[in-house]
Amino acid sequence: MRIDIVTIFPDFFGVLDISLLGKARERGIIELGVHDLRDFTYDRHRTVDDTPYGGGAGMVMRPEPWGEALDATLTPETVVIVPTPAGVPFTQAAARELALEKHLVFTCGRYEGIDQRVIDYAASRARVREISLGDYVLNGGEVATMAMIEAIGRLVPGVIGNPESLTEESHEQGLLEYPSYTKPSTWRERSVPDVLLSGNHKAIADWRHEQQLERTRRVRPDLLPDDQ
Ligand SMILES: N#Cc1c(-c2ccc3ccn(Cc4ccncc4)c3c2)n[nH]c1N
């Protein structure tokens, strides 16, 4: 998979050189390109924004630099991901779908957003998904892009050493994950549930599934299937 990010804050993504994504890049499983939108401007001040038509507060990102950035990154296989508060909520299912794509381009807006014609133009050349990280307001697309890249990157085949560990995580099977414990068996007078020390694999699996249902009922009843 190749990922390209277009942003006015390229240094923001330096952290992607380390941890899991860093190793995936070293192993050639994921290629990453970070592009400064200002490199696609030609005025002395490298201007990327202007006042909104129709008036209103704030500034809008100019279409010209974005057009050149898309020209430099798009391929017929690209999925353009536009982080926006007006997007479809990001989910684990979306992360799974996007992890199977060959090329993702993240367009990180700032100010009041990107001129709508840029998104419309991108949709004439590639698949475009306008995605929201959640129902709260950020100052730009970079934080959302970082979160999405982490959620997607860890699902790219070959990135995680033990893919089985992915199947029991929250949201993977529609339920929240069961509680986890490690040594010591007693800590500050709190002990690990006996079933986990029993060696009875069926009893452990049943207990863990019941814990998933109980936690999901308590914390996220909206995730429960109708028959639960
Ligand atoms: N994904 C996502 C987001 C964003 C988001 C994403 C991109 C941009 C670009 C500019 N802004 C600032 C802004 C623009 C319009 N209205 C309010 C704030 C952004 C916010 N906010 N909240 C989310 N869940």
From TrEMBL:
Domain tRNA methyltransferase TRMD/TRM10-type intervals: 1-224
Major subcellular site: cytoplasm
Top-level taxon of the source organism: Bacteria
Similarity-based family: Belongs to the RNA methyltransferase TrmD family.
Gene: trmD
Subcellular compartments: Cytoplasm
Species in which this protein is naturally found: Rhodoglobus aureus
Matching InterPro entries: Alpha/beta_knot_MTases, tRNA_m1G_MeTrfase_C_sf, tRNA_m1G_MeTrfase_TrmD, tRNA_m1G_MTases_N, tRNA_MeTrfase_TRMD/TRM10
Protein's recorded name: tRNA (guanine-N(1)-)-methyltransferase
Record keywords: Cytoplasm, Methyltransferase, S-adenosyl-L-methionine, Transferase, tRNA processing
Subunit structure: Homodimer.
Reactions catalysed according to its record: guanosine(37) in tRNA + S-adenosyl-L-methionine = N(1)-methylguanosine(37) in tRNA + S-adenosyl-L-homocysteine + H(+)
Binding site for S-adenosyl-L-methionine: G109, L133, G134, D135, Y136, V137, L138
Record function comment: Specifically methylates guanosine-37 in various tRNAs.
EC number assigned by the record: 2.1.1.228
SUPFAM superfamilies: alpha/beta knot
One Pfam short name: tRNA_m1G_MT
